[in-house]
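so my prof wants the structure for this chain in the tokens format not the other one, which i didnt know existed until like an hour ago. anyway here's the sequence
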Amino acid sequence: MAISITSWLDPALKYFSDQSGIPVDQYSSQVGGEGIANVLEMSADFFTKGWLNRAIQGGAGLLATSYAVWGKDVPDRLRRELLAVGTHELFRVVDVKPGEILEVRQSLSDFIASAQAGDWNTALSSVLTTPAEIQAAMGGLIPGGPPPAPQAPETPKPSYVVQPEMKAPARAAAWGKYLITG
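here's what i got, hopefully its the right format
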């Protein structure tokens, strides 16, 4: 029996593999490998940050890809699964946005400075997600989560001074007001 990490998906993906014309073992290898890579990525993103996050994902990608390419007696299906996982993780490392470059650089700088100073709490909090950060990310989903965001004070409604009803000035009696001479 060949080793596989995605064979359990075969029954669920059979319809789609039939529709696409791709054999179910190949279809499941690709879809399952991507799914496993996404779970690994989410786990790494949840617990680590900065340079450590990139190092863990790069290491996982290198391991999976290396074993798939150079491993001895690796079944074809497992090779495909590992290639899907490995390439996903490696592409995640090189797909960097400008803000992430600054975050990784700052994380590395903070880690080195804190480690040299012997401040391991600060060093580790620069690469590991702190309990406070996890609570903030989870919001109200976990007991003891952060308090609700403060509400902005209610803006007082403008008060209007009620003016007495303005009436047209009373007209003087028009009769005899004007003297018409001729």
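also thought this was worth mentioning. The two ends are 130 Å apart (CA to CA).
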